[in-house]
Amino acid sequence: MVMMVVFSVMFLISLIAVASNPSPYFAALGLMIGAGVGCGMLTQFGMTFLSMILFLIYLGGMLVVFAYSAALAAEPYPSAWGSLEVFSYVVGSLMLVVVMWMLLVNDFGAFDEIEGCVMSVRRYVGVSEMYNAGGYMLLVAGWVLLVALLVVLELTRGFGRGCLRAV
Amino acid sequence: MSPYILFVMLSSLGLGTTLTFTSSHWLLAWMGLEINTLAIIPLMTNKHHPRAVEAATKYFLTQAAAAAILLFASIYNAWYSGQWFIQDMSSPVSTLMTLAIAIKLGIAPMHFWLPEVMQGISISTGLILVTWQKLAPLALLMQISHNIKPELLIILGLMSTIIGGWGGLNQTQIRKIMAYSSIAHLGWIISILHFMPALAMINLFIYLIMTITMFMTFNLLNSPTINTLAMNWSKSPILAATSALALLSLGGLPPLTGFMPKWLIIQELTNQELAPTATLLALSALLSLFFYLRLSYSLSLTIMPNTHPQTLNWNMKTTTPLPLSLMMMMTLTMLPITPTIISLF
Question: What residue stretch is flagged as signal peptide (chain A) (predicted)?
Answer without folding.
Answer: 1-19
